Please model this.
Amino acid sequence: MADFLAIVVIGHALPLLGAVFDTRVWLVVAFAALAISLLLYLSSLLREDPDALVHSGRSVEALVPVHDEPEVLHRSVERLAASTYEDLTVTIVCEPDDHSAIERAGDLAADYECVNYIQNRRSGSKAGALNDAIERSDADVIAMFDADQEPHPELIAHGMAALREHDIARVRSLPRPTGLIESLAYYEYLLLFFLPQKLARSLLGLRIVGSRSVLIERSVFDEVGRFDEGALTEDMDFTHRCHQANLSIRELSYYPCFEEAAHTLRDWWGQRVRWITGHLSICHGHVHDWRNLSDPAYLSSLLSLVGTFVAGIVLSVTVPKLILASLSYPSVVAAGLAGIYGIVLTTRVIDNYTAGIDGFDLAWLLIPVSLTLYGLVVVQVVVSYALGREVTWYQVEKHG
Model:
């Protein structure tokens, strides 16, 4: 009888497992999820008023931490100095042993009246640089940008308008698609981060705060504390604490920040290893206590841990599975890829209009390759994390 029941269970389980790993199923799921995400993005654009701008009033201090990248520092500083918001101070936070960055910061401070620079008294991490600058600041609102970001002149004004009703205003930051690797990073960003986050926000209510391209009320730091200087991804840790404090976070799509993407495959790989490792460590730190099951931030962490591993396995075999499936179901695979490509290119058209990206490129044809590589990174990180191997900070090469 036991053998018979086992045969029955296995007989029912095998078709289910086959469906789970069926490429056709994943294509349908991916298309449906991305289509819903695109609709949510369009809906958020319609609800956001690009003319909602506040050009003066409360004091804002924009912090720009820099470390070993003086050649790109002018990007963020010059753009911030050209901001249409009047009551803005730009503070460059330099590491005390980074003499080239200090020299460049001094030149920029001499060129622009609203710009000054300080040396980090808590050196060792980006979180420490931000914490030190926040402690010294008396501004009503703290804004934060990376050295290579290029904030739109209206970004601060648009963010300050959002802060009339919210505690935090997060502005979209996207890689500039200037070459093949850079364009792959852009499409990867759309498929794996930007669009899925729209769906995740609707289902779980989790909005990313981050530590760049964001404006934060000073009272937020009094309530949730500053950044964790021991975290590999201090932005995700801060995000979870803000959600646990039930703070109001507004995500803005207009007037985005451009940032420099990785230029080589080595930098691309190393950067993602750090991101994913930091993400796993933060999520793991939030799921020790099962009594928090009613906490949305806890649930999102738990789902992120499981989802990251599953997504990594699925993505790592993207190209092989598409090749095998196309031999048996060529029309289904073609239709599924056409639908996903259509969503990606539609988003690119919208970005060309709202973010000012120029033209198109053919890197979108290599999306399956990019997803496969990303999946391999995830699998490597999960295995390494499970084995207790440490990952240190990785800094990509920037082009001035």
Remarks:
- Residues 22-48+180-206+262-400 form one domain.
- The radius of gyration is 22 Å.
- The chain has two domains: 22-48+180-206+262-400, 60-179+207-261.
